[in-house]
Amino acid sequence: MSLATRLRARAREPWLVLLMGAFVVIHGTTGVLAPMASYRALDLGVGASGLGLLTTAFSVFPLVVALRIGRIVDRHGGVAFMAGGLLLMAIAGVGIAAAPSPTWVYVAFAVLGLGHMTAVIAAQGIVAKASDDHTYDQRFSTLSFAASLGQLVGPVLGGIVAGQGSPEETTRALLVGAGLATLGLPLVLWMRPRLVARTGGGPMQAPAAAQVDSAAPAGRTDSAAPAGGRARWPSQLGQPSRPGQPGPSLLSIAQTPGMIRAILVSTMVLSATDIIIVYLPALGDERGWPAALVGGLLAVRAASSMGMRLVLGRLVARFGRRVLLGGALLVSAAALVALPAAGPVPLIVALMVVAGAGLGMGQPLTMSWVASIATPGSRATALSVRLMGNRLGQLAIPAATGTLAAVTGAGGVLAATGLLLAIGLTGLLGGPAGIPGRSRPPRA
Prior knowledge:
This protein is an all-alpha fold and 444 residues long. The chain has helices at residues 3-11, 14-43, 52-76, 79-98, 102-129, 136-162, 167-199, 250-254, 259-287, 291-310, 312-319, 321-338, 345-373, 379-429. It is globular and about 55 Å long. The chain is 75% helix and 0% strand. The chain starts with a helix and ends in a 15-residue tail after the last helix. The protein has two domains: 1-205, MFS general substrate transporter like domains (Growth Hormone, Chain: A), CATH 1.20.1250.20; 249-444, MFS general substrate transporter like domains (Growth Hormone, Chain: A, Up-down Bundle).
């Protein structure tokens, strides 16, 4: 099947197209506002060391509320929460632009983190509820592709508007970022009636192929599925799935077989991506690479990740999740270990293509992994726990890598990251509670 054919097939799902557009806006807005917030903090007298508090503000507050957001999305659907997250992001952009002191920048940046977390959990919850085990990989890869596109476009847009980075230009870029967030609201609102049309106005149901919960472990069926009928899924559009129930706890989610592994692997993949972005410039500085080469290498990594996400569903259908994710981590690990010793530029570019391709497959595959082993009615909550693990990793791992970099340099950090990914393969591939091995549509 050609790329054009696959894109046309996805266009036949209007709700997914609108969701992709909104997800581009969500990540594009963050791509505009995050670097501009750093400029605004510097303008207000914050030193370079104080910029680390921005990362903390963005991550810590959402960690406190992520589980609750996931539970509410499971009960009431994600459309309203995507809109609410975008609105919070717009408010944060205006707040950073108008901040009279560093404290207000931190507060507004925390609001941005909350809005981003809310919108992402809602979007992932919509995909999890509107899909089954045979479509998770394709749809989560589509969602990840949209995120990559937003992360690529957002900083470019912010840089163009900000120009030389004067306070006036930074303010203008922040307001543009806030305006961009509001552009996502119509997309979310237009998505709602298309989801209603898809489900006939009733509760969300599993696709026709799923007579029982396809995400259940072997030997277990969905107790909520009517005998002889299709498994009912929680409502996406405002009808609670279990009225009066508080929702699954963090402990119950963590006790799901394979969940801790899935979250740890997801955290490793995201952290490896962050480390490349942070330490490749440092490696370039150590080796005397021009800044243009470093920027080009990062762009190659991003483009490779985006390209693999377009064809991920087809690759999973051919090789299965276990083999594909294991292979992706292995080749990424090898590329990172080899990168510090690479000499010729073509070899460096090839290694970045390999690392980008493997890590680009890792994130959507771990989303599918979490969604496929979570029980119906708790998928958005489980995905929110996954995001919590990612954020904790983003807080803890930079401190550890900073200590390592002081001893080994940037090359040592990249190589150690590759070894960590390789070690993670042991937990990924071992035992019956690991990632489901294959995701193939049932034969007609």
